[in-house]
Every structure is written in C-alpha cells, then in structure tokens.
Amino acid sequence: MTSARPAPPGLADGARRVLLANWTGSSTVPSPGLYPHQWSWDSAFIAIGSRHISPRRAQRELETLLAAQWSDGRIPHIVFNPAVPPTAYFPGPGFWRSTTAGAAAGAPRHVETSGIVQPPVHALACLLVHRADPRSSARHGFLARVHPRLAAWHRYLGRARDLGGGGLVSVVHPWEPGMDNSPCWDAPLARVEPVPPGTFHRADLDHGAASDRPTDLDYGRYVRLAADYRDGGYADYRDGGAGSAFLVEDPGVNALLIASEHALAEIAALVGADASVHRRRAAYLTAALVDRLWDPAAGLFRCRDLRGGGLIPELSAAGLLPLLVPGLPREIAAALVRTACGPHFGLGHTVRLVPSYDLRGRAFDPARYWRGPTWFNVNWLLERGLRLHGEPERADALRAAALETAVASGFAEYVDPYTGEARGTRDFGWTAALALDLAVAADQTP
C-alpha cells in the first residue's frame, strides 16, 4: 500500500502566479503570447483550479464564456478579446466573421467568436466551482444562472450533432475534440484539399518551435474545413452531416459529455429543475458509446470516421477518457486500466504520465503537439477516472508525477512523455490550474 505524497514545495505559489498573470479581468488566457483570447475548454479547466484562489473569479471565468453562447446553444471554442491586435492569433475574428456568417445560426452580436466548439467539460467545471463555496455560490445565484445555458449547450450537442444517427456527438473539425493534430485524424484529413500555404500566416510559429507544432499541410486542411463551415453559415446537417468533409465520433468528447450530464443532473437538482432527463441522457450516451466505439480487442475506445466508414485504427489517449464515465461496465473499466498501464501507453512502467498517442504507434512523435507528448488535462481527467473505478494507488502515483512534472517543466503546455522535457509554451493556464487542483487534493489526503 502506497501513501499519497504532498504537493512539491512552491507548486501552489507558482500556479497562482501563472493564473494571476494570465487573468484579464474577466477571463484567463491560456498563454498571453501563443493563445491571447479565451478558449472554451481551457476556461473550464482553468476555473477548476482557480476556484482554490477565488471561487467568485472562477464563476466569472465560466460566465464570461457562457455569455458568448450562440442562440442555438453552441459554446464557441474561442471568444475574441477586441483589445488584442487582429494579427496576434490566426485564425482570428476576421476569418471566422461570426457576427455576419453566423447570424442565421444565432451567433451573438456583441462579441466575435469562432464557429466551432470544444469538448463539453463545462457542467462538470460549474459543479466543482459551486462546491468550492456552496453558500457564496447560492447567494450569488451562480448555478441558477448557468443551468439554462448548460442545458441549452447539451441540447445543441444532442440534437444538432448526432450526425451519425447512433446517439453520439460528432465533430466537424479536428480542433473540436481538442486534440488538433492527433494521428487519428490523418486518414479523415487526407480527403480534405488544403488551402494554398501562402494564403494564411501562422501566428503560432512566432511563439513556438515548428517541430512542436502541427505541420503547414495540417494547417492548410484545418483552414479549408473552417472556411467551408463558415461559408455554409455554420449550419449543422441532420442528414449525416452533408456539408462536412470531416465527420468523426470521438470517445473523449462523448465521455466528457456523459460526465457533464451527470454533473448537470446534480446542478438541476440543486436549482429545483428536473434532474432525471440528464440521468437518462447519461445512461443513453453510455450505452451508445460502448455500442459504437468500444473495441474489446484493443482494450480501449476508438474514433469512428463517419465519412470513411468504420473505426479508426490509431490508439489515442482519447480512447482512455471514458474511464471518467460513472456506470461504465466494470469489465470495460478494468480493460481501460490494463491498456493505460500496458505497452501502448506505459503508465507506471515506461512513462509516469499517459502520452497523447500510442507509444508504439506508426506516427508517434514525443515532441509534436498531440502526436505523442503528455498533456496535463488528459492526465487530470484520467486521475479522476482511476479513482472513480477503484484504482487509488495508481491515481496517487499519477497525481504525484503530474505535480512534479508541472513544477519541473515550468507549467509547460505539454511535455515529452519519456523525459518530461517542456514543450510548447510555458506558464500555461490549464497546467497551472489543474496542478493547483491536484495539489490541494494531495495536501488534503491523509
């Protein structure tokens, strides 16, 4: 039996420093140079950590994001800060043109946003922020304000994005599941004609090494997909996503939606609304997830390419994220743990933190974005999943590794899974926030 270790000295102060430096007064940027606007799932993760600094600030973080929600229910993946120069990030507001191109889909008029979405971790974040100070949350009516917006967000995903007809949410762009250049997208993206490389300027390369980032070819295809979606008025199609060349059911996105449906059921009960609809929805999605994406031979969930027809063969950390799901069949949860600790992901053996992609995969790269490096949000989610499914010792070891690596890497965006070498940018928002959350938990564990 191992005992939980306290957080490394200086971690909490360092994490607070990062979060205070990245705070704009109404939200937190992931990185002032590389990502100078508000990102959807970043803000959810950041609020989970910043609740330990100020629950009221964490509430404001989430409500600032939700204020940019479209009337069709979608929460855009970027909310643009008008004080930031237009050239600071690409694609910026001039590319997305949400207030005009998205008008028919319900884009807000008061703020510019992107038109695609990111994984729905928001209800879970709102519930955890509420729990940080329930009396203050109730006094300020936090849950009462966010509940209808969260319910609308989940309705949008369930109605407009069930493009495969099997009950699961589909993504229409590689940026939507958050794992932008995962090898899982190589085959679906190969069908997309990229825009010419001279037609856009990548601001990300002004702040990071090209060897750490997606390739120009990847970016050309990302831009093509986003421009086509924009030019179609950001419309989602019930007839199998007729307007999108990229259409995928991702297990990570759907696992986070299930976890957030459970959280939304608890939020609904707290505000006097009907919680049963969310419990039923969570059960329905869990069954659909197992039915459509579980691969017993591989011991994890796979992505389904709705255009190519069938499960994508690549092994991604997204396929482990259903460990977060309450009510997951016991034998499937046990298989996920074996896969996480086996040769393809190496947890506790060849590596201390789960990599984003198969260590033995044909496209594994320990340095390049989502093609192999370790990300802190993925490991925070898996730490919760391990605890949920009766693996406290493995969860303790993962938590200790995450905390040590966060400090040693300078709160890096991501790290080499073997060496822990910092990659991407430093002082990254969700790395600091989730390290702080894990540190508080470690210090509270006997």
TrEMBL record:
Domain Mannosylglycerate hydrolase MGH1-like glycoside hydrolase: 35-431
Keyword Transmembrane: no
PANTHER family documented for this protein: MANNOSYL-OLIGOSACCHARIDE GLUCOSIDASE (PTHR10412)
Family affiliation: Belongs to the glycosyl hydrolase 63 family.
UniProt keyword terms in alphabetical order: Glycosidase, Hydrolase
Membrane-spanning segments: none
Keyword Transferase: no
Cross-referenced InterPro entries: 6-hairpin_glycosidase_sf (IPR008928), 6hp_glycosidase-like_sf (IPR012341), Glycoside_hydrolase_63 (IPR004888), MGH1-like_GH (IPR054491)
Protein known as: Mannosylglycerate hydrolase MGH1-like glycoside hydrolase domain-containing protein
